[in-house]
């Protein structure tokens, strides 16, 4: 399984805490692709962390940077790209992701997403009095959008990153054979 060559780009979508960044980095390693994370690229280009960008430019400013970054990165070949959870809200992003690569939706329950994100202060949209409720509201809106763009849906609840990777590689091999 290690080092398996699979063609094209893999794009990871899903809610905050789904594991896009973590699983994406590991997937790039085993599939021999270059890893990018839109949030990390935006941070390194601006020299500012996501919460600061939200504070200075608002969510709208961040979303403008996000769509520009997705356009730029998705033009590359043979990459794994972890998107931010809100990327699918923009129809332009959905069209690009569908067109330029194989889209993997990492799904998780709201309870699990909450447990994975509640100690992290770097997600400005969850810095509210009731982050679990916020996640629930986002899930309602976004789950259909993730499904709309996905070529593959993987349930990540109660699955370790290691076992997810094995499931993922098996599924990707099957898809590559088709
Ligand atoms: N399958 C998993 N099981 C348990 N914890 C996970 C899993 N995937 C990711 N995590 C943890 O959840 C947190 C959020 O993961 P991250 O990769 O940043 O998610 P995302 O990029 O989708 O917001 C991290 O602390 C990560 O280690
Ligand atoms: O869901 C969202 O709207 C966001 C998700 C974050 O990325 P992760 O999904 O990697 O946490 C980051 O892009 C920003 O805080 C907004
Ligand atoms: Mg991430």
TrEMBL record:
Keywords: Amino-acid biosynthesis, Aromatic amino acid biosynthesis, ATP-binding, Cytoplasm, Kinase, Magnesium, Metal-binding, Nucleotide-binding, Transferase. Pathway: Metabolic intermediate biosynthesis; chorismate biosynthesis; chorismate from D-erythrose 4-phosphate and phosphoenolpyruvate: step 5/7. ATP binds at residues 17-22, 123, 159. Its main location: cytoplasm. It catalyses: shikimate + ATP = 3-phosphoshikimate + ADP + H(+). Its cofactor is Mg(2+). Monomer. This is Shikimate kinase. It comes from Iodobacter ciconiae. The lineage of its organism: Bacteria, Pseudomonadati, Pseudomonadota, Betaproteobacteria, Neisseriales. The gene is aroK.
